[in-house]
Structures are given as structure tokens and as C-alpha cells.
């Protein structure tokens, strides 16, 4: 029973399926497409009929019957909670009774999951991940009416962590996921999502800054961004000067969240590494700039880090494009495990 992983944003959709074989995991299928403006706004589905029609045609053409869906982080609630004297078998019930303390919605209007980070002698540290029930039901309705049964849903950032943070990296890390319309910053400890925040600065912000400052079209601005990046050589200087306010703002946000975590977390620890993910994290010169300014190692995330491909196998989705699929890949890894149990 093939399960396809789906990531939807305000302007596009991506889908991907991984297939397990005796020799290793294969990339079975993937694709992406545009979503018209106004259909999804800030993660909320505003025009169900248009999205349903789009997905119905795709499901029919690709013979998709089962799906896994990522939910937008900007609509979620992530809370670190300490439970005292609660057995693991009673944690869900205990969290249900505490929901109103952590989520600004009536408990009946919330769906949630949780992860136990650590069990101490007299308490447990738990991460609560919650979403509005109405949001989840809208996604479930659209996918179901379009003709494919949703098998499970989870936070897009939980999926991203599964794909880009290597299994053997258990230290504290920060991930900066840079898409078309937004950037998500998240702190990960022992591969568990602990903190997340999203700001409305995306790749399009860079395109607009270049177009305005250099008096070129958006299409030309995108080409200049890809070619010149954030480099300070003479040839790239006009583009650098156009986008330096945007990149500086992103660096300041990263600093703010690192300092917040250091002052508010249990261990007062700073991240040991920063992983860059998302299509616009490919900006030339960005890793070097952030490493110098933040004082920690900065690397481009490998979305295939935890996918066990056969030896010498090269997936048809190239690395430069795969970074845009990190959420779908992480979701597909979970879907692959789900297929075994259905």
C-alpha cells in the first residue's frame, strides 16, 4: 500500500514516496507544483474547492490512494512541559488536563502529540506539539474528497528534523529552513524538536530587494540571486548590497533565538551546529557569513542523511533540489515505516 508524503505551502505543493527494497531504500516517485494565490494563506486552506480539484487531478493521474500530510508550523503550538510524579502511561491524560495552560484554545478544539525528552528521578521533560482541530480537519477533508485517504499527519518541522539531522548527531542543533515566503528557526535536542519560530521573510523577499535596488524584473532578480548570491567580490557587490539588510535581519533573528534558548532552557546550552535547509538556503556565501557572525559551524543540511540508499545508487532528485524536499523526505521516511504495519 504505497503512501505518498505531501507538503503544502501557501504557493506550492510537493509530494514524494520512498520504497524499501531488500537492497536498500529507493526514491519511488516525487513531484511538485504551484498553488494559486489565495488558496492557502498562512497555512490555512481558504478555497477548499480549488485545492480539492488540483489534488483530485493529481491523485487520479499518479494513482495515489494513501497519503501522509505535514501541518504548517506557523499554526502550531510547541511547548516544553515538566510533568512531576506522572507515570508514562498517564502522560496523555495529564497533558489533556493542562492544555488550556499552554494552548490558547479550548481543549475540545485542539489535537496534540507529545515526546518524552528525558525521565528524571522526580519528573519528566515533555515536548507538546499541538494544532487547531479545525485546521487538521480542513486538510483531512480536502485530501479525502480529492480521493486519497490520509493515513497520518504531523508537524512539518518534525518531518524536517527526521530527514536532515543525522541519526548520530545527538547534540543541540539549530535548523534554519528558508522557503519562498517564510523562514523557520528551530532548536533540536537529541533529534527532538524543542523550540520553533517562523518569520515572514522568504526567498521572495530577496527577489523583491534585488529587483527594486537594481531596477530589474523579478525573473532577472532570481537569476542574479542564484548566480551572485551573498558574495562580496566586485562582480557581485550590487546584489550583495541589495540583500544585505535582509540577510542581516535573518542573522539577528538567529542570534535572538540562540540567546533565548541559552537563557531559558534547562541546561543553558548553545547549539553546537546550524543546519541550513530549504530552497533559498542555497544562497552562495550564506554559510560562511552565518558561521563567522554566529560563531558556530554552519553546514548545508543533507535531506538524504537518514535514507539508506543501496550502494552506488543516485536518486533522480538532485541534491540542489532535494534541499527543498526535506519536509517531504522526512514525512516519507515515517510513511515507509507506516506501510510495514498496514
What is the strand and helix layout of this fold?
Elements: E1 3-8, E2 12-21, E3 24-34, E4 40-41, E5 44-45, H1 48-62, E6 66-71, E7 77-84, H2 91-102, E8 110-119, E9 123-132, H3 133-146, E10 149-155, H4 156-164, E11 172-178, E12 183-189, E13 192-199, H5 203-214, H6 218-228, H7 237-264, E14 273-277, H8 286-294, E15 298-300, H9 319-322, H10 326-340
Name some characteristics of this structure.
alpha/beta; 38% helix; 5-stranded mixed β-sheet; 30% strand; single chain; Nucleotidyltransferase, domain 5
Total number of strands: 15
Overall, the morphology is globular
Taking the alpha carbons of the first and last residues, their distance comes to 8 Å
User: Number of helix segments?
Assistant: 10
What is the percent of helical residues?
Answer: 25-40%
Mean pLDDT score: 93
Could you characterize the architecture of this molecule?
- There is one protein chain.
- With 342 residues, the chain is an alpha/beta fold.
- The protein folds into two domains: 1-74 and 133-166 and 302-342, Nucleotidyltransferase, domain 5; 168-301, Nucleotidyltransferase, domain 5.
- It contains ten helices and 15 strands.
- The strands form four sheets. It has a five-stranded mixed β-sheet with strand order 3-2-1-6-10. Strands 13-12-11-14-15 form a five-stranded mixed β-sheet, sandwiched between helices.
- The longest helix is centred in the C-terminal third of the chain and has 28 residues, at 237-264.
- The chain is globular.
- The mean pLDDT is 93.
Amino acid at each position: 500500500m504505497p503512501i505518498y508524503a505531501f507538503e503544502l505551502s501557501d504557493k506550492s505543493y510537493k509530494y514524494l514516496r520512498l520504497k524499501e527494497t531488500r537492497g536498500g531504500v529507493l526514491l519511488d516517485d516525487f513531484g511538485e507544483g504551484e498553488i494559486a494565490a489565495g488558496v492557502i494563506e498562512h497555512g490555512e486552506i481558504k478555497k477548499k474547492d480549488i485545492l480539492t480539484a488540483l489534488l483530485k487531478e493529481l491523485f487520479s493521474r499518479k494513482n495515489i490512494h494513501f497519503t501522509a500530510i505535514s501541518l504548517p508550523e506557523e499554526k502550531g503550538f510547541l511547548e516544553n512541559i515538566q510533568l512531576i510524579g506522572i507515570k508514562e502511561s498517564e502522560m496523555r491524560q495529564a497533558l489533556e488536563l493542562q492544555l488550556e495552560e499552554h494552548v490558547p484554545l479550548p481543549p475540545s478544539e485542539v489535537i496534540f502529540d507529545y515526546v518524552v525528552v528525558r525521565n528524571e528521578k522526580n519528573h519528566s521533560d515533555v515536548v507538546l506539539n499541538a494544532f487547531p482541530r479545525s485546521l487538521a480537519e480542513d486538510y483531512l477533508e480536502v485530501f479525502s474528497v480529492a480521493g486519497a485517504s490520509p493515513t497520518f499527519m504531523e508537524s512539518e518541522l518534525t518531518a524536517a528534523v527526521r530527514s536532515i539531522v543525522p541519526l548520530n548527531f545527538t547534540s543541540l542543533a539549530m535548523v534554519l529552513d528558508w522557503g519562498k515566503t517564510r523562514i523557520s528557526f528551530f532548536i533540536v535536542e537529541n533529534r527532538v524538536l524543542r523550540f520553533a519560530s517562523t518569520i515572514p521573510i522568504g526567498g521572495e523577499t530577496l527577489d523583491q530587494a534585488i529587483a527594486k535596488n537594481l531596477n530589474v524584473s523579478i525573473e532577472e532578480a532570481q537569476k542574479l540571486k542564484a548566480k551572485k548570491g551573498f558574495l562580496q567580490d566586485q562582480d557581485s557587490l550590487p546584489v550583495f548590497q541589495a540583500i544585505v539588510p535582509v540577510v542581516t535581519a535573518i542573522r539577528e533573528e538567529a542570534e535572538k533565538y540562540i540567546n533565548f534558548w541559552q537563557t531559558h532552557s534547562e541546561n543553558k546550552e548553545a547549539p553546537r551546529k546550524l543546519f541550513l535547509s530549504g530552497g533559498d538556503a542555497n544562497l552562495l556565501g550564506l554559510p560562511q557569513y552565518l558561521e563567522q557572525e554566529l560563531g558556530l559551524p554552519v553546514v548545508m543540511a543533507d535531506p538524504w542523511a537518514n535514507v539508506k540508499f543501496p550502494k552506488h545508487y543516485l536518486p533522480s532528485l538532485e541534491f540542489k533540489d532535494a534541499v527543498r524536499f526535506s519536509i517531504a523526505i522526512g514525512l516519507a521516511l515515517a510513511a515507509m515505516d507506516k506501510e510495514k504495519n498496514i
